[in-house]
Specification:
This protein has 226 residues and is α/β, with parallel strands linked by helices. It has helices at 52-55, 58-65, 73-81, 146-153, 171-181, 201-210; strands spanning 2-5, 11-15, 18-22, 44-46, 68-72, 87-90, 95-98, 101-107, 124-130, 133-137, 158-162, 185-189, 214-216, 223-225. It binds nickel (II) ion (NI) and manganese (II) ion (MN).
């Protein structure tokens, strides 16, 4: 499947001819200043939690594309009240079969408040199962033993994991998370965007190599196949 990294925790993934966009935060990200918000395709926008660095550009993209917003009940309702009524609410442990594959909303240990202070429900991540492959998108989270349940319940090909530390797990925990969910291929996210989460790329990459895993730290704007 083709994956494009738009910076921070924002990825566009093509599955079954559909464009799935995760956690759009472009216009507030200096590292993504060369990304053209108006040309990002989206049929679905999947949101892990309500923090600004995950939902900032949802309205602009959803208004332009008419994309379906998929997240927890509270976040979907919040966008619904803004006139973006094309939403699909979920909650932890629930799965739904969309036309591109099955989405499961899974646990994350983090917090979730919407930009205006409204309650953002409990934060989550996603497991996506499709004919083109299965993967886990962690959202913002600590390392948790719940990830073992994901590994036991799903046959995953790779995982997209936060690893910038401070607000989420760091890279050593992300490596353990990969073991818990049963993958050896990891795409990193939630690094370098602000000072608290700057990482030393070669140190992190060397650690994953020493652990026998493949880590990709994508460049902003880069597209690649997984
Ligand atoms: Ni967050
Ligand atoms: Mn975040």
């Amino acid at each position: 499947m083709k994956i494009t990294f738009y910076g921070h925790a924002c990825f566009g993934i093509e599955l079954a001819g559909k464009h799935i966009l995760f956690d759009p935060f472009i216009t507030g990200n200096q590292l993504a200043k060369d990304i053209d918000l108006g040309s990002i395709p989206a049929d679905y926008i999947l949101l892990s939690h309500g923090h600004q660095d995950h939902v900032l550009d949802v309205e602009a993209i959803a208004h332009r594309t008419g994309a379906t917003i998929v997240s927890n009940f509270e976040i979907v309702s919040w966008f619904g009240a803004k006139g973006l009524s094309n939403g699909h609410p979920m909650n932890h442990g629930g799965s739904w079969k969309f036309d591109f594959g099955v989405v499961k909303y899974v646990n994350a240990v983090h917090s979730s408040v919407l930009p205006d202070g409204n309650y953002g429900g409990n934060p989550g991540g996603f497991v996506i199962e499709s004919e083109e492959g299965n993967f886990y998108y962690s959202g913002d989270t600590a390392l948790t033993y719940d990830m073992k349940l994901i590994g036991e319940s799903h046959d995953l090909d790779f995982a997209i994991l936060c690893l910038g530390d401070n607000f989420t797990m760091g890279y050593k925990e992300a490596s353990r998370a990969a073991e818990f969910v049963g993958v050896s291929r990891v795409i990193g996210m939630h690094f370098d965007t602000f000072g608290y989460i700057k990482i030393d790329h070669s140190q992190v990459e060397d650690y994953f190599i020493s652990e026998g895993k493949m880590l990709k730290l994508p460049e902003v704007g880069e597209s690649f196949e997984m």
